[in-house]
Prior knowledge:
Elements: H1 4-25, H2 33-36, H3 39-57, H4 66-82, H5 89-117, H6 120-150, H7 165-188, H8 194-200, H9 215-243, H10 250-271, H11 277-286, H12 290-321, H13 328-343, H14 349-367, H15 376-383, H16 390-405, H17 411-424, H18 433-444, H19 452-502, H20 505-525, H21 535-556, H22 564-571, H23 573-592, H24 599-616
Amino acid sequence: MSFGFLGIQFGFALQNANVSRIFETLGANIDNIPILWIAAPVTGLIVQPIIGHWSDKTWCRLGRRRPFFLIGAILASLALLVMPNSPVLWVAAGMLWIMDASINISMEPFRAFVGDNLPSSQRTAGFAMQSFFIGTGAVIASLLPYMMTNWFGFSNTAPEGVIPDSVKFSFYVGGAVFFLAVLWTVIRSKEYSPEELKEFEDHSEDVCEDDHAEAGPAIKVSLRTGIISFLVGGLLSLLFVYVHVEKEVFILSFGLMAFGLLEALSALLQHRKVRNGYTSIFNDLNNMPLTMKQLAVVQFFSWFALFAMWIYTTNGVTADKYDMEVDQNMVKFLSTQLDELENKDKINSGRATEIREELIKYQAHLNNDEKASAKVNLVKFYLSDHILKEKEVVETLQNQLESARNKSDDERIASVLKELERQEKSKTPDIPYEALKQVNQLAGEGLVTLPQNMDGKFTFFTRLKEIRKNYNDGADWVGVGFGVYNGFAAVFAFFLMFLSRITTRKITHMISLLVGGLSYLAVFWIQDTSWLLLLPFVGIGLAWASILAIPYAILTGSLPQNKMGVYMGIFNFFLVIPQILAASLLGFMVKFWFDEKAIYALVLGGIALLLAAVSVLFVKDED
């Protein structure tokens, strides 16, 4: 029944660990990445309650929930195949929207599926089993780029604007696994008919089940909520204009205004005696059970933290813990190169201004005796034949090394020549840092003499290659960390069942969130980039397993059977609203509050998880 989540999480894990990397590769600035990620929460906000409502009302040959599993799996698998081949940034952003909508079509009914098929006493185990399959699928998917590079020999680097093969083939594998895993659940599971579910239903007191009942109070609630939301959103918009905030922050205020209009429209339709799926969803939203409202606060802080981790771990860890630094000489050299490109009209003025502003920031940090970490986009720009042309470097080094081999039998010379021969056959040569490092060593020992026209630039060229390699190594290690937290989430799924039996579901969830919050903070504190950096991800795995299971086990006990799907979709609001908030505010905060040090976004996420843990104490857990 839960096996399909193995495939769903393949899609999500590949997305979470690699989409920021894809966006950066295609030219996105770090402070713009959150706004590109807004596809995930917005599609969830729209799609899940609609799919939940439809699946509540559906019954066909495949059942109630399973038709949506299959449709979403087909669409998501196709999106996974296309995503890593995006030629430009806007295509990648568009594919993220399509992929997220498709994943949501499959995922939403899976939650209601457990609520439909299991009694209350088994639901903790049921959702924990989903956590197990989510963790198992995600650990493999998160490790795929690392495995593709280190086990199967796919390249982990590519020219500017090109996605590495290690990422591309990881997405291809993910698409196949997504479809096959969901197809297994569709074929091998069964569903109870609406008549059977009606017989099982034994409570409906806390939620109005009749969509047509008590229209008067429902109209007043919708109208009041709509007016308040619209006014608050309008006032925030005026405030944001006055203080000149970044454009993405307006997502928060415009979102409130849009919600207010939708609520008011629902009230207007009901006043005119119109009853349809739209008004039903808003009525259900306004009449949520008390337990669901209390869990909403917990989910808000939990998912804000998760979104911060998914967006900023790669950039935060690579910039803070890997050697991405540039010095005064490097900044001066890059500025000179930029001047030459401008004088020769080899770069447009907008791009030149953007790069110059970045170099000025580096210089300001260095003037204040602070570390200046290079952004990977800037590094890739200069390495795209804007310092030395790769093809010319290959030819020149081959000539120098052939000459050196006649004078010395040093095995390093043969090793580099072999790599250069491989690069010569490539349509887009990209000499790896290790080969250039060996050439520098040979030159330092006097075995190789670099031509005068290359000598002044070669050191800087090599250093930029090293920075890019360090970024990719760090990004891969983050992928391993994501694999660790997902892998331990699979293991902890069984531990949660045991802990909830000897304590309570509330205590279990509170402990898990506390451990997760402290683990976020540990990522900031630990500077070691070896296995020690992976330890916090173990604690994050416990929090992740609990977030995926315990809130749903508590929630389903408070819901009527015939509205399980729509309420699961509405509950998703409290996952995606904090993500929208994070997408609209985190970029602004990292840029202006944290001086573009992305690691502090993880600190903020840790604090949010600690607040979520405290909020659990106020949740009513009764069936």
